[in-house]
């Protein structure tokens, strides 16, 4: 049910509230889709009264949101929720994913294209020393199943090792940007112990495939891993589909 604009409760704020908290309240309304792209905010004076904040504090919060391309000021018309296109919000990725779950599909598509290629190249170029470090990382992560944050760090570490082992100097530019984005999805799926256990098994299979120095085996092992994680993400976003 869509909330009518005049029914939105912007929330009351203490007079000494920091501008960050004002901005966070507006962001919450956007995440909850009470405010949508193109919606006009109340006039500054009215909004300040509703939130019980000073107009200077409100202006500071609005300026911060304008810099993030979340709010746009239209001269003579007022402040509006911006289009919220992902391209404009790349520095604020939590907002991108909070607003549009379908963005995860694009993320996994990009990961399937790039990370399988990285695994193929790593199979050809990997050294014995790199393989040993990866096996140690996999072994260590197996003991972190019950620590989601530590497991996430180990997960990212292994993928970074594979990236370095590829020997390609250009792919890291793309992959590190994607990895920054993927932290959001990894945290979301990593909340489930069964996902962490499956990821640990997948990582072991990837490293075993790399040890064969067979590019196709390495590519397939990485693809299976990414599909497993994407399936769980789809189950989270679309529970009625059971990840299909």
What is the secondary structure topology, with strand pairs?
Elements: H1 19-31, H2 44-51, H3 55-67, E1 71-74, E2 78-81, H4 93-99, H5 103-125, H6 128-142, H7 148-165, H8 171-190, H9 193-211, H10 215-237
Antiparallel strand pairs: 1-2
Order of helices and strands: HHHEEHHHHHHH
pLDDT < 50 runs, ≥5 residues: none
Range of strand content = under 5%
Radius of gyration from the alpha-carbon trace, in angstroms: 22 Å
Enter the CATH topology name of the largest domain.
Four Helix Bundle (Hemerythrin (Met), subunit A)
What integer is the average pLDDT? Answer: 84
Total strands:
2
The order of strands across the largest sheet is 1-2
Q: How far is it from the N-terminal to the C-terminal residue, by CA?
A: 27 Å
What is the number of helices?
10
CATH superfamily of the largest domain: GntR ligand-binding domain-like
Whole-number count of domains: 2
Give the helix proportion (percent range): 55-70%
CATH class value of the largest domain: Mainly Alpha
Q: Given the C-alpha coordinates, what overall shape results?
A: elongated
Supply the key terms.
single chain; mainly alpha; Arc Repressor Mutant, subunit A; Four Helix Bundle (Hemerythrin (Met), subunit A); 2 domains; two-stranded antiparallel ribbon; 3% strand; elongated
Explain how this protein is built.
The structure is a single chain. This protein is mostly helical. It folds into two domains: 84 residues, Arc Repressor Mutant, subunit A, CATH 1.10.10; 141 residues, Four Helix Bundle (Hemerythrin (Met), subunit A). A two-stranded antiparallel ribbon has the order 1-2. Helix 6 runs antiparallel to helix 9, helix 7 runs parallel beside helix 9 and helix 8 packs across helix 10.
